[in-house]
Amino acid sequence: MWKGRFAVETAELVQQFGESISYDWRLYKQDVAGSIAHAHAQREAGLLTSEEFDQIENGLRQIEADIDGGKFEFKTSLEDIHMNIEAELTRRIGPAGAKLHTARSRNDQVATDTRLYCRAEVDAISVGIRSLQSALLDRAEKYAATVLPAYTHLQRGQPVTVGHHLLAYVEMLDRDLGRLADCRKRLNVSPLGSGALAGSTINLDRQAIADELGFDRISTNSMDAVSDRDYIVEFLFAMSLCGVHLSRLSEDLILWCSAEFGFVTLSDAHTTGSSLMPQKKNPDVCEITRGKTGRLLGNLVSLLTAVKGLPLTYNRDLQEDKEPLFDSIDTLKLTLAVNAEMIAAMEVREENCSRAASDPMLLATDLADWLVKQGVPFRNAHELVGKAVAESVKTGTPLNQLDLSAIDPAYTSEAGSVFDLGRALAARTNPGAPSVENVRSEIRRWRESGL
């Protein structure tokens, strides 16, 4: 492609070092779509005859079909997907194929292809997130009233329900969907027509090309258009944070599956055994999910590092955007799918949850609230309950069986009424609180939203 300037063939090691066809081949559908739109604009500008346009479009469609069918031979010597397709097109249809690259560069071409690719994958990942949300919502509905302890510092804190706990992850995933939607708006901009960095003296209808490819608008600075990879960084970040949320869910389930917690059982189909210990049932999906989150984070840092010191405009370093992008997309899509399937089959061991939630210490804060309602300032109430807790620990007497009036006269005979778990949960009626009524209301709201 640059034989007019160079007298010596590119060294084989340089070809091997610089090629990207081994991974950017997956942009072929976007490359074909972008080339057809570009050729359409060339025809409208009088650069191609209708016959030449038909030859180009038919030739590109045939190449796309050959790649679909695994019949296309990619050549490392042609470096990337763009030149592989263009060279084969020219071989097949002759001079018309050599006209296709008029008024464009691989710089704006690859930016167009990756934006189209990211747009499609944002949509696909969003579907995967919705599927996982749906699975969580189904489990939340089934166990909306199943009480279990919630934790801070991995110490028992206050009672909630399994439904409320799972809905927290539905919320997290919904924020992930919002970030992806925002990312989609910013990436859905057409750079085609920006050329290598300064456009072209042959002016094609950029807006018509953008409309044909489904872009919302065209880029307004040619230098930024060919060097911008913000949209990939942002996409990688959105995927990374989604991975972090999945990792947190995984950590909860790993704990809940242990004999020490015993709150849930995962199906045999989503767990594995041990090669040595026959009794083991390991939550491998959760552990691998937790591990793959590091991979998603690493891909984000990799690209941030690659672009942090680049001068305008295009630099070959930007070739390093695709492998992290493709890997994160593949990783997150599979992770979402397997987690949705696992959650859908998960069963909660309600008797164990109930046993853990029966710990009267979970209602210590409710006892302080009761004192406040009797007119005791909260800090004083906090101290009085702290004294009761200390006495409970010291004597081994459950908190709800102590003679509280012996600790302080502020405790009347009515104080014991606090230790009714059903009443305690039902009293948590503020928006966002875990009363069963609230949980069921939230489930209805999510259902009405389309989950």
TrEMBL record:
Domain Fumarate lyase N-terminal: 4-298
Enzymatic class: lyase
Catalytic activity: 2-(N(omega)-L-arginino)succinate = fumarate + L-arginine
Coiled-coil ranges from the UniProt annotation: none
Superkingdom as given in the UniProt entry: Bacteria
E.C. number: 4.3.2.1
Alphabetized UniProt keyword annotations: Amino-acid biosynthesis, Arginine biosynthesis, Cytoplasm, Lyase
UniProt keyword Lyase present: yes
Pfam families noted in UniProt: ASL_C2, Lyase_1
Cellular location(s): Cytoplasm
Pathway: Amino-acid biosynthesis; L-arginine biosynthesis; L-arginine from L-ornithine and carbamoyl phosphate: step 3/3
Argininosuccinate lyase C-terminal domain: residues covered: 362-424
Recorded GO MF terms: lyase activity
PROSITE patterns the record matches: FUMARATE_LYASES
Family under the similarity heading: Belongs to the lyase 1 family. Argininosuccinate lyase subfamily.
PANTHER family: ARGININOSUCCINATE LYASE (PTHR43814)
Name under which the protein is recorded: Argininosuccinate lyase
Native source species: Haloferula helveola
